[in-house]
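pasting for ref
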Amino acid sequence: MKPMRIAFLAATAMAASAGLAHANPINVVAYDPTGKSLIDFEDAAATAFPGTVYNGTLTSGGATLSERFAGQVLTSAGDNDVLSGTPTGPLTLQAGAANQSLDLGTDNGTHNLIPCGPRGCADPNGYGEGAFAVRFGGGTGYFGFQEFFADSPNAVTTLDFFDAAGGLIQRVTVGTSGSFGFSREGGATDIAGVSVFTGDLGGLGYDNLLYDGHNGGGVPEPSAWALMILGFGLAGSAVRRRRAAFA
């Protein structure tokens, strides 16, 4: 089990919500792996920058990922993807344009999700600027993820939570560096998928996604979580060196 990149920055999360379609809100909570299924991308192929491109879907940890959900509108703000609109039901993944969808890169021996923006995966200004969506095999009441490589401290990352019919449960925004958890209030387990995009100008990497599914994702062992380290500084410097090399 690889060491987890955890920065205890969840307390700085800028939580906001819009478009509530369900009675119980989604709260920003601690990033907690206890009893959760893990998507760490170690079960999928990855290479060093510019990484391994996935133009269709990517399966890892018992869940499936792609650029967005069918029915969502993809636009851009500068070099960054922006998602809006409501998916068509039932909730179904949709791939992005070739070389502008998902990418798995290696950093410090681990596999990281680096979604590609409008400039494409081979362009350092497109590496990490893209959106991604994850579809769970069933419903979950919890989602967690880690993000790093942040260059824009005032930017936000936007998450839209959807039910199986494509209905918006809630939109939540957080900062662009740290470990974040999201939990449905009242014990509801109707989160079928989550889409994510960021306004960070340098783009982000993502890793160690958590959910309640228990349908194929590896469950972290306590000994692995005892190895928690703050690897964000090393990861950030590594991606900046890669970008400089390809500028």
